[in-house]
Design goal:
Helices cover about 40% and strands about 20% of the residues. It has eleven helices and nine strands. The strands form two sheets. Strands 2-3-1-4-5 form a five-stranded parallel sheet, with helices on both faces. A four-stranded parallel sheet has the order 7-8-6-9, covered by helices on one side.
Amino acid sequence: METQRRLILITGFSGAGIRSAINCLADLGVHCIDHLPLHLVQPLLAMKTAPFIDKDIALGLHLYELEEISTFLQLLHELDSQLEVDLVFLTAEVDTLLARFEANRRRHPFAATNPNLTDAIQAEIKFLHPIQRVAKLVIETTNISPSELGRVLEQRYFSSSLQRTLFVSIKSFGFKHGMLKPADMIFDVRFLRNPFFTLKLRNQSGLDKEVRDFVLTDPKAIHFLQELERLHTWLLPQYYEEGKHFLRIGIGCTGGQHRSVCIAEELGFRLREKKLPNIRIDVSHRDRASL
C-alpha cells in the first residue's frame, strides 16, 4: 500500500456538515466517498488501481451503532501505521443542529430510540464523544457557511495539486432566442450600434474582423469594455476568495450574432491577459450557429 497518500476521515454530528465537507474536498481534487461502511475501508485502500493508489482519499463516515465505536478506534490505530491519516470531526451547537433538522425535515439517525429531536441530538453527541476526543481537527460549524467550511479545509489540505480553480464562462446569446439560463450575471449590449443594419456585415458574426472593427470603434463600446474589465478584474478574485467554483456571465444582444459575440470575445481576451491567479476564462456563443 502506498504510504505517501493522505487519508482524510470526515465524521461528526448529524447535521454538522459531513456531506458539505466531502463536497468541498471533492472540489479540491480529493477522491471522496460518503457513507462508506467501516468494513469496506481496508479493502478500498488495498485496491491497486487509480485513483486509490495515486490520490488523497476522503471518506465520510457515519457511525450509528455502539459496536462501530470500538471498530472505528481499532481501524484508526491500524491505519495510522499504514499511511497519513487525518480525522476531522464536525460539531455544531444543539440549537443549530435542531434548526437544521427542522428546516430539511430529515429524520435524525437516533430518532428510533429518542423520538424527541433534542433528545436524539443529545444522545448522538454523547455517543460520539470517544471519536471527537481523538480527532486531529475539530471544526465548529455553527456560524460558518458551506463555502467557509470549504476554505477551512482548503487551507489545511492545500497543495499545488489541490489548488482550486474558479471557472468563468462568458457566453454570448440573443434575447430573441430566449434568456440565457443558467447565468449569474447578464449584460445587455443592445445599446451599442448594430452591425445587422449594415448590409455587408449582416451575414457575418462578431468573430469576423469587419464586424469587430465596427463594434469596437464605437465610443460606447470602448467605454463599456473598460468598465467591464475594471469590474471583473476586481470581482473575480472576490468570488474566488468566497469559495465559488463556477461563474456564468451572459452577454446579450438582439440576435446573438454580432455585438454580443464581439464583446464576449473581447472581454474574455482582456481578462485572460490579466492572468488572474487560479481563474480560468472560457468564451462560447450560444446562438451564433443559428446564422
